[in-house]
């Protein structure tokens, strides 16, 4: 394949990958999840005021506080990385606060990973075919696409790891100063998502063992790179494992709840093996609809034979990158296996991207080369071999098209309940009826409702700074609140926005249904119900 053909093929792959990640980004997923709302509003305020607002004192009277240029974001007492917020700040500042600008950094990071994967595989193998196949498989990966379409900071992990490994390989090969860039991206990965703080040290240890001679030969640049990594990563690591910032991990850790060490280790092994299950990888994936397409595995079913053939090739090759891939394959589920909920977990095991696409890309390139050689040596079977290659290509394309149809035409409807659908529609309904915010009561079962109010109503940061929690206007009910007692005492004109399961005695005035495709015969289920208190004297 010539350089021009290679470049054209890469551009096509990037276009396809970008399309799957950007098309209808503002409306698919069908609504903002609470984490997205927080990230979007924090990004908006960082871009406008150089800081963000967080809630404190929820056990009693809630209050809003402001912090400038945060390293971590306090989300209702849980500390998370501020990486996504800083990346989204320019987009929300230029394009306004909306679903598109909030999600765009994830889509761009996902598309950039495709390019970096091509460069990494080419640097490892020297094969343009293997690099193109790997990039192509990632471009259409349902696992990677779904996390490129919503504001999850985990999508930066594959980008940082792939970029760091690319610069590491370039540094080892002939430009040792690139080891500094590798160290920088490995350190940045520490800031992206919690699982990277487990995976990165493991992969770095592996690289040190595999390339110890090469690193020693470039000890000057290796030392500088190590200093850069430690200078950036160690303070954040210490900061994160101390105090309240480790509280959430303590709650979901396999070592919590007073478990004995042997019990925790057994649970770890059990969780670890679940991430290699055929059902998880190729059939059903993660059952959480925000983490995958229902009825689809993390990988396509046709990737299974490629994966096994790829393992066979790697066993035969005695190369440095084979050792890296084996270590990567061994370590990617470790962080996810340390938790006790949602296992196997597609997001917490996102360190497995783009590992599987690399193995499959190497396998596909090998098969293609063997097929071409076979046709050259056996001209009698050339036409049959060509037809077989075309059929395989057609099956793959049809499967990808089927995934695309599911992603764009089915997923927005079947996943709506997982995306807090209905809150935006309820607020728009209230604005149409010119209802004052202070007359609107929101269900306590709408998780992190203040963030949704802040985004959908575009609450001015200055207003929050001056008025505090009262600047939101809305009333937020606690869970398990006695709706009947509240309803009796509400003044006329009040709006009560609830989930259908919260009460059965009062007929709702407005029902907000989940979206349903055209031509659906079964009535859509209710997402939220609105009860309007009327003046009984009229």
Poorly predicted residue ranges: none
Helix content: 55-70%
The fraction of residues assigned to DSSP E strands is 5-15%
CA-based gyration radius: 26 Å
Going across the major beta sheet, what is the strand order?
Answer: 6-5-7-9-8
Q: Which descriptors would you attach to this protein?
A:
single chain, 538 residues, alpha/beta, 5-stranded mixed β-sheet, two-stranded antiparallel sheet, 23 helices, globular
Description:
The structure is a single chain. The chain has 538 residues and is α/β, with parallel strands linked by helices. The chain folds into 2 domains: 3-26 and 103-415, no CATH class; 417-532, no CATH class. The protein is built from 23 helices and 9 strands. The radius of gyration is 26 Å and the shape is globular. The protein starts with a helix and ends in a 6-residue tail after the last strand.
Write a brief caption for the model.
This protein has helices spanning 3-22, 34-49, 83-95, 99-125, 128-139, 142-147, 156-173, 178-192, 196-210, 212-217, 219-241, 247-252, 261-274, 278-283, 303-316, 320-331, 334-337, 355-377, 382-414, 423-432, 449-456, 461-467, 483-489, and strands at residues 51-56, 63-68, 72-75, 78-81, 440-442, 475-476, 495-498, 510-513, 526-532.
């Amino acid at each position: 394949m010539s350089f021009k053909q290679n470049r054209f093929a890469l551009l096509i792959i990037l276009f396809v990958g970008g399309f799957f990640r950007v098309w209808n980004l503002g409306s698919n997923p069908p609504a903002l999840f609470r984490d997205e709302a927080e990230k979007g509003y924090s990004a908006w305020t960082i871009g406008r005021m150089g800081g963000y607002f967080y809630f404190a004192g929820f056990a009693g009277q809630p209050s809003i506080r402001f912090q400038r240029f945060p390293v971590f974001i306090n989300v209702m007492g849980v500390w998370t990385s501020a990486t996504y917020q800083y990346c989204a700040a320019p987009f929300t500042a230029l394009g306004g606060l909306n679903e598109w600008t909030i999600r765009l950094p994830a889509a761009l990071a996902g598309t950039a990973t495709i390019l970096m994967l091509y460069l990494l595989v080419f640097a490892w193998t020297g094969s343009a075919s293997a690099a193109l196949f790997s990039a192509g498989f990632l471009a259409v990966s349902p696992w990677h696409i779904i996390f490129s379409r919503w504001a999850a900071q985990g999508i930066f992990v594959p980008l940082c790891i792939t970029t760091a490994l690319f610069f590491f390989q370039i540094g080892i090969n002939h430009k040792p100063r690139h080891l500094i860039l590798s160290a920088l991206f490995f350190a940045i990965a520490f800031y992206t998502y919690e699982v990277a703080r487990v995976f990165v040290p493991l992969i770095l240890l592996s690289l040190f063992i595999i390339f110890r001679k090469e690193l020693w030969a470039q000890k000057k640049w290796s030392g500088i790179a190590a200093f850069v990594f430690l200078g950036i990563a160690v303070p954040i690591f210490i900061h994160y494992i101390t105090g309240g910032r480790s509280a959430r991990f303590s709650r979901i850790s396999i070592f919590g709840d007073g478990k004995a060490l042997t019990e925790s280790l057994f649970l770890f092994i059990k969780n670890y093996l679940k991430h290699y299950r055929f059902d998880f990888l190729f059939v059903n994936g993660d059952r959480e609809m925000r983490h995958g397409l229902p009825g689809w595995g993390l990988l396509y079913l046709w990737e299974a034979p490629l994966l096994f053939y790829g393992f066979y090739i790697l066993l035969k090759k005695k190369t440095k990158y084979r050792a890296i891939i084996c270590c990567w394959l061994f370590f990617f589920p470790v962080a996810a296996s340390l938790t006790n909920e949602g296992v196997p977990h597609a997001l917490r095991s996102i360190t497995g991207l783009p590992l599987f696409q690399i193995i499959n890309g190497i396998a596909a390139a090998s098969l293609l080369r063997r097929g071409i050689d076979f046709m050259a040596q056996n001209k009698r079977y050339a036409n049959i071999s060509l037809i077989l290659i075309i059929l395989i290509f057609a099956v793959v394309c049809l499967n990808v098209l089927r995934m695309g149809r599911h992603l764009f035409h089915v997923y927005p409807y079947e996943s709506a309940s997982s995306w807090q659908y209905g809150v935006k529609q309820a607020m728009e309904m209230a604005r149409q009826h010119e209802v004052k915010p202070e007359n609107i009561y929101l269900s306590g079962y709408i998780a992190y409702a203040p963030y949704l109010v802040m985004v959908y109503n575009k609450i001015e940061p200055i207003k929050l700074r001056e008025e505090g929690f009262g600047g939101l206007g809305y009333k937020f009910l606690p869970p398990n609140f006695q709706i009947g007692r509240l309803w009796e005492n509400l003044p006329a004109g009040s709006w009560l926005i609830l989930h259908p399961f919260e009460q059965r005695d009062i007929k709702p005035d407005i029902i907000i249904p989940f979206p349903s495709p055209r031509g659906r015969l079964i009535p859509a289920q209710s997402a939220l119900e609105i009860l309007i208190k009327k003046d009984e004297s009229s």
